[in-house]
Amino acid sequence: MQCGADHHRTIVISGKPFRTIGAHCWDVARRLEEMDAEGVRQQVLSPMPELLSYWFDLDDALAFGRHINGTIASMVAAGGGRFHGLGMVPLQDPERAAREVRSLRHEFGMVGVEIGSNINGVSLGDQRFDSFYAALQEEDMCLFVHALHPEKARLSGPALMEALVAFPNETALAMTSLIVSGVQARFPRLRIAFSHGGGSFPMVLPRLQHGWSTSEQLQEAIPRSPEEQARAFWYDTLVYSESALAYLIQAFGLSQLMVGTDYPFAIREPFPARRIDGLGLGAPEREALLSGNARRFLGV
Q: Residue 5, Cβ neighbours under 10 Å: how many?
């Protein structure tokens, strides 16, 4: 990182500026002030996806990850019960990542792990990651998946198009990989959530379900229907419209959705409760979306 004016920092990757971030990324007092202003009682803190660093050498990844995890843990401790933490692990070495899961729980006090939607191009359903999933299940820790490094060879437009267009499709590919590979069957107590409502997967699911219903080959490869598996995952509500959010409820079930904001970055959604209020739900359903579902996912 390089220092800038007005308490900003620039993240530099391979000698090039990647993103400028403000003090609310690390300043607990400022973060709490902005939470209060937007009616947010608690937040879950997690690494910026680009910091997950699967492309580092293992020793560097471990050292950097422990620095990030320690920073998050210190913010949680300073937050007076307002924060929960998700850490990072070096999934370029799944066995070492599994050991780090236990460290996250017992040394850093984290409730879960954030990972990217692929690990250096390897799909999340690959069985090489089973030791990592087993450690999460054993420690009763949740898993949050965020899009990372999508295929973008045919993507046109400014740099922001990667996040706006390529990320949703990348998340859909990650979800499909987990469904096809039977991760839920092997780890039935593992709680997995996806950012931004599962990306484009809500529109892919009916097509995938229809194909599964009409193909014996798919039914042999995927014993449990895609729709049933999709409704066992969790999703955040950051889809930017009430109509899209209403479709998520229809596709996945209200019990599997929880508030997401992308705070404090450019495409975040301020005052997140307003989007929920726009659905006209009853008090129990509203409370589930705003708090209860997230608590179940986090295990708190």
A: 5
Residue 25's pLDDT is what?
72
Token pair 């050991």 in the structure block, residue: 99
Question: Does residue 57 come out as left (phi exceeding 0), alpha (psi in the -120 to 50 range) or beta?
Answer: beta
**Taking the mean position of all CA atoms in its chain, how far away is CA 67?**
20
Q: Measured in Å, how far apart are the chain's first and last C-alpha atoms?
A: 33
The predicted-structure confidence for 134-153, as pLDDT tens digits, reads as follows 999 999 999 999 999 998 87
Bridge-based pairing of strands 192-194 and 234-236 is parallel
17: left (phi over 0), alpha (psi -120 to 50) or beta: beta
Give the position of tokens 């300043």.
27
**Structure tokens of 207?**
């097509």
Ordered by where they begin, the domains of the chain are 1-37 (no CATH), 39-298 (3.20.20.140)
β-bridge pairing 192-194 and 142-146? parallel
Task: Output the pTM of the full model.
Answer: 0.93
C-alpha–C-alpha distance, residues 263 and 142, integer Å: 20
Residue 33 pLDDT > 70 = yes
Report the C-alpha gap between 210 and 132 in whole angstroms.
Answer: 32
CB atoms < 10 A from the CB of 67, how many? 11
